[in-house]
Specification:
By secondary structure, this protein is an alpha/beta fold. It has 24 helices and 12 strands. The strands form 4 sheets. A 5-stranded parallel beta sheet has the order 3-2-1-9-10. Strands 5-6-7 form a 3-stranded antiparallel beta sheet, with no helix packed on it. The protein is elongated.
């Protein structure tokens, strides 16, 4: 344990780097509350999405890294801002009339359009918890509605009333002049309609802990700031929540980064040290545009898990979180293969190398064995050539290549075969476009065919790659033109596998037959 902790204290893996920053916060020992609190936030106006997964996964990685270097207990809270008013009705929800009739009400006061839960907010919270439980995250759930109404937020809300002018000063500097005229950190909830009101506050009585305002009909009301009668605007709420819970760490996307000064300022004015932050870059779609729930561009988590494993998604999330990354279907095969490459390398690595290996953080040090004797990319190419619509077709080739492998002994390979077939059907098959070889390529292909017919060595990817190289070495400059020709003529794609390894998996005789079909023009036809 001492070796592990010592190496973790110098590891350059980003979860350990962030954990060490957090440890400096409590160099003198555990905080008064007895634990370090990690928080992630969730806006339940829609269903959980891939960004939610990434935020909780990355926070969990830092939490586990912190537990490696410190004996201070930790907690992870997932906070749902379900008291937020529903400002817009999502287009993809049933019972649109019902939802439109409840616009501006807190999400936990809006009827559930699905008719399954107490409210729309309760429905989305249940989806969040199911989502997090599916991936085995260890967390505590807090509903903003419960937090406000139960009195847990009262102390901080009363403090906010006492320091109202100071908090308003922080907010007003960030607002346009027109918005400044009507802005208040407090949003009253109308006692009759139940709607969240965006109205000017006429008076704040710090001694009584109340706010006075006129509603939209001009009637004056005075309400206590406690007990769920009033909520905070979302930016002040961010900092006030940190103060109320004693949050030590929260990460958020780059789109929040300009508000960090506001969040921190609110928290400090409420008498509490702000948490450590980690700002991550946003995900982009295939056109380089920010992924948006309302646009529906990019990948959903269900889409990723249709074509690849949860662990491959966690691997993708681990990679360079401070660098913007395209997140579209074409990143899935690489993520699958790189995850298993790291998994296979782990047992032979030194402890220092293991701590820098992404799989250590994905599996919290309890790293399983990789049984992927065939790469995911190779399975995709195999599915393409075999026009496979069932993974059993791929297993026919896998057994010839690795006779000891079975779906039972290699469950990760079996799952990958199923993923590969689905990916092939949805993305590879529609894009396949074969072409005829030119004269030089035809000559090289005939040479490769003859070499394979005469081949009597051990059928290994290395040996067969030598034969492939021999056919192209004196004919093509650069050699990549030869491989590009192989992919386009034989596989109907611009990119492909290490071809010797592909022949070993697909079969020498089967590859000869494939070349014959290409030379006869059958594939291009």
């Amino acid at each position: 344990m001492s070796d592990l902790r010592d190496l973790a204290m110098t590891s350059k893996a980003w979860p350990f780097e962030e954990a060490r920053k957090l440890l400096k916060r409590y160099e003198g020992g555990a905080p008064d509350k007895g634990h370090v609190l990690f928080e992630t936030g969730y806006g339940p106006s829609g269903l959980p999405h891939i960004g939610t997964f990434g935020e909780v996964m990355r926070t969990t990685m830092i939490r586990r890294a912190f537990e490696t270097i410190s004996d201070i207990p930790t907690r992870l809270v997932c906070f749902s801002d379900d008291m937020d008013g529903m400002r817009k009705v999502p287009d993809n929800m049933p019972n649109q009339e019902l939802l439109h009739a409840n616009v501006q009400k807190p999400l936990t006061s809006v009827p559930d359009p699905f008719g399954e839960f107490e409210s729309f907010g309760h429905h989305n919270n249940a989806m969040l918890r199911r989502f997090l439980d599916t991936f085995g995250f260890e967390y505590e759930f807090i509903s903003a509605t419960d937090f406000y109404r139960s009195g847990q937020f009262d102390e901080v809300l009363l403090r906010a009333a006492e320091r109202y002018d100071d908090l308003m000063a922080i907010m007003l500097t960030s607002l346009r002049e027109e918005r400044q005229q009507t802005y208040s950190i407090f949003l009253p909830i109308h006692p009759e309609t139940g709607r969240v009101l965006y109205v000017p506050i006429k008076a704040v009585d710090a001694k009584q802990g109340t706010v006075t305002f006129d509603d939209e009909d001009g009637r004056e009301w005075t309400l206590p700031v406690t007990g769920g009668n009033v909520k905070l605007q979302w930016k002040p709420d961010f900092g006030a929540r940190w103060a109320a819970l004693g949050v030590d760490f929260e990460m958020y996307g780059k789109d929040h980064s300009t508000n960090t000064k506001i969040y921190d300022g609110i928290c400090r004015k409420l008498g509490v040290r702000p948490p450590e932050h980690f700002v991550y870059e946003l995900f982009l779609d295939d056109k380089g545009e920010k992924i948006s729930k309302s646009k529906g561009n990019g990948l959903t988590i269900d889409e990723w898990l249709t074509y690849a494993s949860t662990e491959s998604l966690a691997y993708f999330m681990y990679q360079k979180p401070k660098t913007a990354k395209r997140m579209f279907f074409d990143v899935i095969p690489r993520a699958m293969d790189e995850y298993h490459q790291q998994l296979a390398a782990y047992p032979t690595q030194s402890l220092e190398q293991q701590l820098a290996n992404p799989v250590h953080h994905i599996h919290n040090g309890d790293v399983p064995e990789s049984r992927m004797v065939v790469t995911y990319s190779m399975l995709l190419n195999l599915a393409s050539v075999a026009a496979a619509h069932d993974k059993s077709v791929l297993w026919g080739f896998i057994r010839n290549y690795a006779p000891k492998a079975t779906p039972e002994t290699h469950p990760d390979l079996d799952a990958a075969a199923g993923f590969a077939v689905k990916y092939y059907e949805d993305f590879v098959a529609p894009a396949k476009q074969y072409r005829l070889p030119d004269d030089l390529e035809r000559e090289a292909l005939m040479d490769l065919r003859d070499r394979l017919l005469a081949f009597d060595g051990e059928v290994t990817g290395e040996a067969l790659q030598g034969e492939v190289f021999a056919c192209g070495r004196e004919r093509f400059e650069p050699m990549r033109d030869w491989f590009k020709a192989l992919y386009q003529v034989l596989l109907g794609a611009d990119q492909g596998p290490r071809f010797g390894s592909f022949i070993a998996l697909y079969g020498v005789n089967e590859t000869i037959a494939l070349i014959d079909r290409a030379l006869a023009g059958e594939l291009a036809a």
